[in-house]
Design a protein that fits this description.
By secondary structure, this protein is an alpha+beta fold. Helix content is 31%, strand content 31%. It contains 15 helices and 38 strands. The strands form 14 sheets. Strands 22-30-29-23 form a four-stranded antiparallel sheet. Strands 31, 32, 35 and 36 form a four-stranded antiparallel sheet that branches. A four-stranded mixed sheet has the order 33-37-34-38, with no helix packed on it. Strand 17 and strand 18 form a beta hairpin. The N terminus is likely disordered.
Length: 623
């Protein structure tokens, strides 16, 4: 039985063959040693290699977890450091380098930039990791080579600066805008019904790729000046790429276009068609280069055709709310019918540039109202939350006119859940163009004629409506003077560009503001889903009473000693109204509305006319 391994106990072969084999091996070793000693250079090389292998092994052991000695990143020595330590050292060195200014030169002009202005940055960690990999190649020979190079200072990594794309593009745009010339694409010009091909023009600008590399290198080196070469910039669209659009435009304005819808038709002349033509770059043709495309601008088409086809269209109507005797109902929405300008533009272009009949059928589309009946139902406007009425004199016609205009502007206003209503934002400026007239209003503590006089009647009414609804009041201002016919301490003044009235809808549903009026009253109501607020309030007595000043005006038409009160003074005063809002017996909020009214000046006419007989002294009220 044969064996495939040797035993340690050897028995000499009877024929002496074992002895002969041993003597042969010894002879071969002696012969090899003779040959080796006969070549001293080879021996030296082996010894050196052995020493190097040993040194590398020792170096590898000494550099475990650290960058090999002798490695540098630009001017920063990182040998012997961990990756984190090296990254910190590189970052410190880069900060000094990047802090210097670089001068760019192009077209006879100069620009001084810093790394910060172009988003220059250095990946210190990445460089440290690259330094750590030196001498750690999987190829043993390459690893030895790198370590030897590091020992002799030949392993030096460059400092690589990364630039921000947007910042660099903005810099290059500024440079090109100063010393360059933009290329001009070939295009088509339409004047009236005349069509002309406008030739392309080459431009000049900096070579951006080369400039970017040069700036990054300069920021990382001692070279602080960069010359930026200007190179030709070809246009994106050459003349031949605009030819198809040119031919299409010429054909489009060569004859009228007939538009049909059911039994109606309209003929549009070439001048009208020319106003629709527009041009843009297109890459949809399959060509590697962009082509100039002729198309019809749907905005211009719509502007032209909408009045023409108005008789066959229909305006969409939003769902609305109708209130009567505290009951609210929904007036259903109505869909509209309008021109489909996009579809028309495509079909009309085909008719205008094709070889067939220049006739196109008018495409119409259904227009859904913004507030559909379904949306209106989902708003939760189903009951009256609060209402309030104030009255006024019907004799002041301009004031009555203004009150009615304001009420109409408020009527139908919708406030979304969580939304804030603003009186001024809703009504807008009170102008003559809107029909407002001059009527007395309080300005700087005096009654003077003003456009929209009467607005505070409406402001006071809606404030009280909101007051009794329990909804939170965001902004409210009292009048500067006390007006007795308004609820005590519950007036509200508003003025365009000045005081405003605001409240917040803190319910989960929409709120509708509804108004109605007569010649002497205005009523404002809030509709929605009743939040169940219970409102109570208290009103303090007037306090901080202040006497009014008296202004005497000489009147030569009155006898000496006669005094006539032209404008009766009103004492200044203050009052506090406290509102408590509860829900299910628990307090939700408590509001304090403090009103401070200043004194209203009394104006007295004093007689200065001298008469022969002495008239009796009297004081009377003016008209």
């Amino acid at each position: 039985m044969s064996q495939d391994f040797e035993t340690t106990d050897r028995t000499p072969a009877p024929d002496g063959s074992e002895g002969r084999a041993a003597r042969r091996r010894a002879s071969e070793r002696a012969s090899a040693w003779s040959r080796l000693t006969a070549r001293p250079g080879l021996v030296a090389a082996i010894v050196v290699a052995a020493v190097l292998v040993l040194a590398v092994a020792v170096d590898a052991a000494a550099s475990a977890g650290r960058i090999h000695p002798g490695v540098r990143v630009d001017g920063v020595a990182v040998g012997g450091k961990t990756v984190d330590e090296a990254a910190a050292a590189i970052s410190r060195g880069a900060t000094q380098v990047l802090g210097r200014t670089v001068v760019l030169k192009a077209g006879g002009e100069e620009w001084s930039i810093t790394a910060q202005e172009v988003g220059g940055s250095v990946d210190a960690t990445g460089l440290a990791q690259a330094a750590y990999r030196i001498g750690r190649s999987r190829n043993p020979l390459q690893a030895v080579k790198e370590r030897l190079a590091a020992w002799f200072g030949a392993e030096r990594l460059p400092l690589r600066v990364k630039l921000d794309d947007n910042a660099v593009s903005a810099l290059f745009d500024a440079i090109d805008g100063s010393v360059g010339k933009p290329a001009k694409d070939s295009t088509v010009e339409v004047v009236g019904t005349s069509v002309r091909l406008v030739p392309a023009q080459d431009g000049t600008g900096i070579d951006r790729d080369r400039a970017r590399r040069a700036i990054a290198e300069a920021l990382a080196s001692d070279e602080r000046a960069v010359e930026l070469a200007l190179v030709p910039i070809p246009p994106a669209i050459q003349d031949e790429q605009a030819q198809v659009a040119y031919e299409a435009a010429k054909k489009a304005v060569s004859a009228p276009l007939t538009v049909r819808y059911e039994k109606s038709s309209w003929t549009l002349d070439p001048a009208t068609i020319a106003e629709w033509l527009a041009f843009r770059a297109s890459e949809s043709s399959g060509s590697a280069d962009p082509m100039l495309e002729c198309y019809l601008a749907s905005e211009e088409v719509s502007r032209t055709l909408t009045p023409i086809v108005g008789s066959v269209g229909k305006v969409a109507k939003d769902a609305s709310f109708k209130v009567s005797n505290g009951v609210v109902t929904i007036v259903p929405s109505e869909d509209g019918l309008a021109l489909d300008a996009d579809a028309f533009s495509k079909s009309a272009l085909a008719a205008l540039t094709g070889d067939g009949e220049r006739v196109v059928d008018l495409p119409m589309r259904r227009v859904e109202p913004e507030i559909t009946t379904e949306k209106a139902k989902a708003m939760g406007i189903k009951e009256r939350i609060s209402t309030y009425t104030t009255d006024y004199s019907p004799s002041n016609k301009p004031r009555v006119n203004n009150i009615h205009l304001l009420a109409d502007a408020l009527d139908g206003t919708l406030v979304p859940p969580g939304g804030v209503f603003s009186f001024n934002e809703t009504i807008g400026p009170r102008t003559a163009e809107k029909g407002y007239q001059e009527a007395n209003a309080i300005v700087n503590g005096k009654l003077v004629p003003q456009l929209g006089g009467g607005v505070c009647q409406v402001g006071t009414t809606i404030f009280n409506t909101v007051f009794f609804s329990g909804l939170p009041v965001v902004e409210r201002h009292n009048h500067s003077l006390y007006i007795s016919h308004y609820p005590k301490g519950r007036d509200a003044t508003v003025s365009w560009g000045g005081p405003d009235f605001k409240f917040r809808n803190d319910t989960q549903h929409w709120i509708l503001i509804a108004t109605s009026y007569t010649s002497s009253t205005i009523t404002i109501s809030l509709y929605g889903t009743d939040p169940g607020y219970e409102v109570s309030y208290t009103t303090s007595d007037f306090f901080d009473l202040r006497d009014y000043p008296i202004k005497e005006v000489p009147d030569p038409t009155l006898p000496v000693g006669t005094r006539v009160i032209e404008e009766k003074g009103v004492k200044g005063r203050s009052v506090i109204v406290t509102r408590t809002v509860k829900k299910n017996g628990a307090e939700v909020r408590k509001d304090t509305f403090k009103s401070v009214y200043r004194p209203a000046e009394e104006v007295v006419r004093v007689g200065t006319k001298v008469v022969s007989s002495s008239p009796s002294t009297s004081t009377t009220l003016g008209p």
